[in-house]
Design goal:
237 residues, Helicase, Ruva Protein, domain 3, five-stranded parallel β-sheet, disordered N terminus
């Protein structure tokens, strides 16, 4: 029986969330540390924090893709503020080479989960395996009740993910469009960033819609065509 079949929850990696699909901007250092951790010659514990929409989930998914390419076992889970799963989820996770948890701040204040995660953490560390975590704040600022857990989560490398500059956002959107197999001009991207002020994850979703609209209409993504698409989307909303 494989490790994944022993788990109470099934998960799937997102195929387009690899390191190659991530536009780093000022975050090359984070990518370097993550890759080294997966290779086994870097930090065994990395905590990435920063505001939403900057790509933390993408990077954790990319770690799992990288692990798979090296024939290593990996697990990813995104915690939710709405409802935590049964802490039995943590059972046997220490057997995985790489474990990634998004939004770890959501367990703060839940004594059962905090204790369960503390015990899992110790087992994973004893195995010499890697733990990659993300949150909106650094571990020092998260209100964990279990002091020993807060101490453990501060042991590793803590890195802040940086927002893209305006120029980087333009380059990132062009990069992402190229990754998806179509072209978009810098002028069109500037128009989008001026008239569609959303985080990058929403802009990636918009690019998918633009690609489909362009193919369906057999038109290039000119600014007049973008206005038409965005106007139609606004009416649908």
């Amino acid at each position: 029986m494989t490790l994944s079949k022993q788990l109470p929850l099934h998960f799937e990696f997102r195929a387009n969330q690899t390191f190659d699909d991530f536009f780093p901007g000022s975050n090359l250092e984070i990518i370097t540390h993550l890759k080294k951790s997966i290779q086994g010659n870097g930090e065994r514990q990395i905590f990435i924090w920063g505001q939403s929409g900057l790509g933390k989930s993408h990077l954790l998914q990319a770690c799992c893709h990288q692990a798979q390419s090296r024939q290593l076992s990996s697990f990813y889970f995104a915690l939710s503020a709405l409802e935590l799963p049964d802490p039995d989820l943590l059972k046997d996770l220490d057997k995985f080479d790489i474990v990634c948890f998004d939004n770890i701040e959501y367990i703060a204040g839940n004594e059962i989960w905090e204790l369960a995660f503390f015990n899992f953490y110790n087992r994973l560390r004893d195995q010499g395996h890697s733990l990659i975590l993300s949150a909106s704040s650094p571990p020092t600022e998260i209100a964990f009740r279990l002091h020993d857990l807060k101490t453990r989560l501060n042991w590793g490398l803590t890195l802040k993910i940086q927002a893209l500059s305006d120029d980087d956002r333009i380059t990132a959107l062009i990069f992402k469009a190229n990754q998806m197999g179509f072209e978009i001009s810098p002028q069109a991207v500037r128009f989008l960033l001026t008239h569609y002020d959303r985080d990058l994850s929403s802009l990636w979703t918009l690019l998918t819609k633009l690609d489909r609209a362009s193919l369906a209409a057999k038109r290039k993504l000119t600014i007049p065509f973008l206005k038409q698409i965005l106007s139609a989307e606004s009416r649908d909303d």
